[in-house]
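Re: your question from the hallway

Yes, I did run it. Sequences:
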Amino acid sequence: MAAPPSRLSGLGDLEFSLEPPDPQANPATSDPYHLSDGIVLSIGPRASRLMDLVADDDIKVDFRYIEVLERLGHGVSLAEYASMVPLLLQAGVIEPGPSRPDPYIRDRLTALDEHYLADLRPRLGKRAKEAYEVCLDVHSRRKRFFQQVGQCPVLPETALRRALLVGDAEDVGRKSVLCLGDDDLVSVALAALGHEVSAYDIDDYLLEFLRRSVSDVALPVTIEEVDLRDPLAKKRRERFDVVLTDPMSNRDCFELFLSRALSMLKPGGVLFSACFAPAAELFENVVGELGLSIHRWYARHNRYYTHFFKQHWYASDWVELRLTERSSESVAPDDFSVPLNLYREDFYQRLPIFVADVGDIEDEKFTRPMYLDLILDLVEANTELRVLDRVYHPADEWSLVIAFAEQCRLTIHADRARKQIVIDMFPFVPEVERVLRGYLMSVFKPNPEEVGVATTNAVWSVRIR
Amino acid sequence: MDTIAWRSGIESGPFSTLEHLQAADRRYTEPLLEAEHDPRIWNAWCSQGRIDISDGTLAVLPSSSQRLLSVLEQFVVGDLITFGRNEPVLEAYSGVHRAWTDEDISGQTLMLSIPGPDRWLDVVASWRDQPPARVIARVRAPLDGWFSTLAASWTTIAYRRDIEHYVTPGPWVLDGGGDVWVLEDISLDALNRDNLPQHAWRDVDSIDPQRCNLEGVRQFIDRIIERFGESAVFNEQREHRDGFHATLRFASGRGFQIELNPAERHLLISFDPYDASLETTALSSVYECFGLAHTRSRPVRTLWSPRELVF
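Structure:
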C-alpha cells in the first residue's frame, strides 16, 4: 500500500517566517495546538528533523524552530507565534487542542510490545494491566526525542517489567522509588502500581512532558530537575528504598549514576541498573569498586525503540544490586563530578563493515581470479587504497581473492555455482566502496534490475541483481 | 544470590545445577516428550515442495504434524561440567525446555535453546491450534531479514520476537534470540536456499586478552577445522596494523573471515557465505578459545531487506 502524501512537503525546509515572539500575546486566552498524529520531532547531534511517520518522510529543522516545535509537542498555545499557525495548520502538521495520546504512535508501540507481552499478559493482575495501559498511554504522548543526551526509550513492555521487579505496592508494601533519569517513563508504571515515585532528569522537555502526562493520567509522581554532576542536596540523600537507572554503558556514567544512586538509597535499599552486554565486565568492576553486590542479572531484559517507532537493535541487561557494608561512592555526595563521557556508549560503535553482493552474473568467466584481480587493480589505481599483498585460491566452483591493504582487508568470494560475487571489506572505506561499486556494475551487471543500498552504523551493504 | 555465590557453583559441582535443570525440564517438557519424533521434519525447511534438512537456525514445520519437539532433538549440551557456572544465566531465563541425551555429550554441538517456559507453552499452544495450512517458522539472525524480503510469498499470521534463547556451556549467553513466526499461504518456491542470506556477522566482545595473538587465532582456526568435519582448503592468518586477520574456507566454499582487535578485545566474524552449522561450530570454538566469564556475542542484524528493515 502506497504511503499517504507527506504533510511536510508544504513546509519546504521549514524556512517559513519566524517572527519574534509577540510580547503582547496572552497564551492563557488563546487556543492550544499540538503536533498532529504521526508527527514527531527528533533532535540529533548533527541535525534535527521533523518527521511524518505515516508518510515516512522528514525535513531538516533549523535550531530556531526547535523551541516552538517542542512546545507543540506539549500541546500549548502558540499565541506568541501566531504567524506560524496558518501554515502549520494548512499543512496538517498541527491540530487544534491540547496534547493527547497519539493513536498512530500507540498502534506502533502496541505492535512492538505484542510479541514480548505474550508470555506476561496472562499472568498480569488487574493493577499490572492498568499500569501497562497507562504506561502505553504516556509513551504515546511523547512527540520529541533528544538524541544528544542519549535518549532512547525502552518499550512500554520493558517499563512494565522493570516496575514489576519492584513489585505491586499491595504485595510488597508501598516503597519510595526513584527513577534516576526517566527517559524510559518507568515512573508512570511504578506509580500505577501504588508506589511513592520520584523522577529526576536533566532534560527540560522531558520534565515538562512528565509533569503534564502524570497530571493528565492522575498519577502522583514527584518530578524534579537534578543534574547528577552537581553535589547532591542533603534532602535527597538516603531517601529511597529503590532506585532505577539506565546510564550509558561507560565507566564515567556507571561511576556517576551508581554513586549518586548509592547516596540516595536508604540502608538496605535496592538498586536496578541497565548494562549493555559488551560492557558487563566493566559494569561488574565498577560495581565491585563501589562495594555493591549483584543480586540478580536479567540478561537481555531491556528492549528499546527508535524515534521512528521501530524496535532498536540495542538491548541491555537489567541488574539488581544491593548495598553492602562495604558500599561507598566513588563520587562523594558533596563533590562535583566532571565526567568526560556522559552521552556515549563505550561498546556501541564498532568500525563499520562493508559487503557487496552481486547476483545473477551473466558471464561466468568474469568470476575467475584473473578478472577479480583486475577489479582490484582498477580500484587500487583509482583510489588511495594501498594494497600490500594479495592471496588467491582458485577452486572449481568458487574462487577467493584477499587483498591486504594498509587501510582495510578486502575479501572477494566468487561462487560460480550461484553466479554470485560477495565482497567483504573491513573496515569500510567509503572511497573504495564508491569506486568498487562502479566497477562491479560495469563489469558484472551493466544492466542491473535492482541496486539496493542499506546502511546502519554497523553495516554498509550493497546488493546488485 | 551475590556474585560470589554464582562463582561458587564451580566448587559445589555441577550436579545440583543439573538436577535443577532436569527438574525444570521435566516440568515443562514432559507432556511434550510423548510426541512422536518425525525425522522428516527434524529441523527442516521446505524447499521447492520437498523437505530438506537444514542445520540449526531455521525450521519451518507443518503445524498439523505437531512435531515441534523434534526440532529440539538436535540441541545437545556439551561439556556439562561448565553449567555449574551458569546459574545467573539460567535464572535469567527462568526455565529450560530441553534436556540432553547422554550419548550426545560430545562437545560437537554446543547450543541449548532456552525459552522461558511460559513463552514456550504459549507457542506450543498456539501451534497446536493452528489449522493445517499454517506453519510455524523458527528463525534467528541472520535469517530474520529473509522474512521481509519474502513477505509477498506468505501471509504472516503472527510473530513473536526473541522467543528462543541460546546459551553455550559455561557462563556464556548468546545475545540475539530467535523469533517464531506463524505463516499461512506459503509459496514453497520462495523457500529456496538461493533466497537465504549469503553472509552474516557476529560481534564477540570482552574476549580473553591473553589469547589475542596469532597463536590464539591459530588455535581457534585449528579447533574449527577439527570439528567441522570438512577439509579446509584455504587457511590464511595475518597480523596487521590493527590486530589479526584470518580467512578459512572449506572444500565446499563455506567459510569465514575474522578480525581480531586486541586493543578492543573484540572479534568480528564474517560468515561468507553464511552457513548456520559453521556458525554454530565457530561460536562454540570462540567461547572455548577466547571466552571469559564476561564474553558476549551478538549477531549483527541483517540488512537483506534493503527496502525496509523488519523491525
